[in-house]
Amino acid sequence: MFSFPFSNQDFLEPRCVWVNGPVIVGAGPSGLAAAAGLKEQGVPYVLLERADCIASLWQKRTYDRLKLHLPKQFYHLPKFPFPEHYPEYPNKKQFIDYLESYANHFNIKPQFNECVESAKYDEGCRLWRVKIVSTNGSTRSEVEYICQWLVVATGENVERVMPEIEGLQNFGGEVIHASDYKSGENFRWKNVLVVGCGNSGMEVSLDPCNHDAKPSMVVRSSVHVLPREIRGKSSFELAMLMLKWLPVWLVDKILLFLTWMILGKIEKYSLKRPSVGPLELKNTQRKTPVLDIGALEKRFSFSFSFSFFFFFFFFCSSSCWLMRN
Ligand SMILES: NC(=O)C1=CN([C@@H]2O[C@H](COP(=O)(O)OP(=O)(O)OC[C@H]3O[C@@H](n4cnc5c(N)ncnc54)[C@H](OP(=O)(O)O)[C@@H]3O)[C@@H](O)[C@H]2O)C=CC1
Ligand SMILES: O=C(O)C(=O)Cc1c[nH]c2ccccc12
């Protein structure tokens, strides 16, 4: 990497820096894995990260009791397994420690506090022009990286989504997003409304339950809830095994049958299953099945009252129901 001699920070134009290899955007698990792969092949690269640490989603925007909900063998990065003594479902701290050791092992040094503002492919010179704003304390500077390849590893869930809800500004309680939720400790004896029944919604509802709070949940559309494990085997692992021999539709049928054996009819929790099976739904609409880690057992009931003290929000698509215990 070198600066073009004709560029100069004193001019108004941002400084141009040629990168002799790919620019990777994002030092989360995927960005780190890409960097490690390139490092192993001796390919130079630049890894840009807008936060001041690796895996910032994991470090800064997750709740305390978070554990991976798939077994560790499905989360490890290439060529560096989890330590043997790690449990099957590592917790947040263990996962972050693992990522730190991964970066150290491959000697990956991301450029922190560098936020990509735009990335444009210049058809003329067949190069990417990646504009970044770099912050260092109160100093802010602009740089343009020029490279042949761009790896976008910014994550699927990086941007928080807050739905606009009429009248919310008049609500007297606290409203927070799931990414700011840490623990149910502060919610003891409170009524809590959780909006959204994804894995975040389900897990964050369970947490206040464990702190004597009273969570309720808004579920706007149908949802596939599967047990995290079926007879001691992760349902994800089971699904992946079956997919080696069976078509998706049949694996879906088997998964739903086994789920029914374990959880019973989901309608008894006032939830509704989509007409399309869980794997097909994931494949076609990117909608992740919810893995039950004990929330259903708490037997939420339903209400549409909005006089709750706390709100949590979870993010994405369709219709609405509500739960409380
Ligand atoms: N332990 C773990 O490993 C965990 C993993 N994850 C993973 O992280 C990813 C993100 O999960 P998550 O944060 O749950 O996000 P998701 O996008 O999976 O779920 C968001 C949910 O919020 C609902 N929703 C959005 N807007 C509204 C609204 N205005 N009113 C009512 N409901 C609404 C959506 O409903 P609809 O379906 O209608 O769009 C959806 O059910 C997933 O891949 C998940 O598996 C998450 C938590 C824990
Ligand atoms: O955790 C995620 O993001 C997943 O996508 C999990 C998942 C995808 N397909 C499945 C089938 C059965 C159990 C879990 C999953």
Automatic annotation (TrEMBL):
* Pathway info: Plant hormone metabolism; auxin biosynthesis
Which top-rank group of organisms is this from? Eukaryota
Q: Where are the transmembrane segments?
A: 238-263, 300-323
- InterPro entries, per the entry: Auxin_biosynth/cation_transpt (IPR050982), FAD/NAD-bd_sf (IPR036188), Flavin_mOase-like (IPR020946)
Key words, A-Z: Auxin biosynthesis, FAD, Flavoprotein, Membrane, Monooxygenase, NADP, Oxidoreductase, Transmembrane, Transmembrane helix
Task: List, separated by semicolons, the cofactors it needs.
Answer: FAD
One example of the protein's molecular function in GO is: indole-3-pyruvate monooxygenase activity
Which major enzyme category is it? oxidoreductase
Q: Where is the signal peptide?
A: none
Question: What's one GO BP annotation on this UniProt entry?
Answer: auxin biosynthetic process
- According to its UniProt record, the EC number is 1.-.-.-
Q: Which reaction does it catalyse?
A: indole-3-pyruvate + NADPH + O2 + H(+) = (indol-3-yl)acetate + CO2 + NADP(+) + H2O
Q: To which protein family does this belong?
A: Belongs to the FMO family.
Q: What is this protein called?
A: Flavin-containing monooxygenase
